[in-house]
Amino acid sequence: MANAPIWLTGDREADQLLTEDDNALLIAMILDQQVPMEKAFTGPLVIAQRMGGRLDVATIAAMPEEDFIAVCAQRPAIHRFPGAMAKRIQQVCRVLTDHYDGQAANVWRNAATGAELKQSLASLPGFGAEKAAIFTAVLGKRRGVQPPGWREAAGAFGDDDSYRSVADIVDPESLAKVRETKRAVKAKKTAG
């Protein structure tokens, strides 16, 4: 199955990079916390532009930490916490380079079950249980990575038409629905 088009940022070039480059999609998922989704998912394009036009995980992995932090902190910074996110991205790039031939797709390529897929993702720096579940749903819904049990491993994020996460966003209407669901979940947590 060809990659389904990603529509997350409103920026054609950023969404195209996310659609075509699994490394970019994985890095964007790392950035997707405590910033607007559009900013997080535009981050890989911004990094690529600042590094000569290409998102190269081996180059990122090999850079001195302070140099990569400077790339991420350059204004406008890629995240509200550019130093911490730069370190996390660099950790993931090192794992990809050292264990997966520099290709994020190799993290999930041989997963025989949804549980195995989620566990592979959860083993990456910056991926807790919920982020691994969400990314399992992204891979299942947007990339066609659907080993047996992937929906169960993704939990509620794997449900069809759930509008719970980035896995469900395909256009402005679905974006609005996901935002409303997130507001409702946040309000419920705040209330009690």
Main features:
192 residues, single chain, Endonuclease III, domain 1, 11 helices, globular, 62% helix
In short:
This protein is mostly helical and 192 residues long.
What do these coordinates show?
- The protein has 192 residues and is mainly alpha-helical.
- The protein has one domain: Orthogonal Bundle (Endonuclease III, domain 1), CATH 1.10.340.30.
- The chain has eleven helices and no strands.
- Helix 1 crosses helix 2, helix 1 crosses helix 3 and helix 2 packs across helix 3.
- The longest helix is centred in the C-terminal third of the chain and has 20 residues.
- The radius of gyration is 16 Å and the shape is globular.
- It starts with 11 loop residues before the first helix and ends with a helix.
- The model has no long low-confidence stretch (mean pLDDT 94).
First-residue to last-residue Cα separation:
43 Å
Helix and strand element order: HHHHHHHHHHH
Question: How confident overall, as mean pLDDT?
Answer: 94
Largest β sheet strand count, sense and barrel closure:
none
Shape, principal axes of CA atoms: globular
Strand percentage lies at under 5%
Count of helical segments? 11
CATH architecture: Orthogonal Bundle
CATH topology name, in short, is Endonuclease III, domain 1
What class do helices, strands and sheet pairing give?
A: mainly alpha
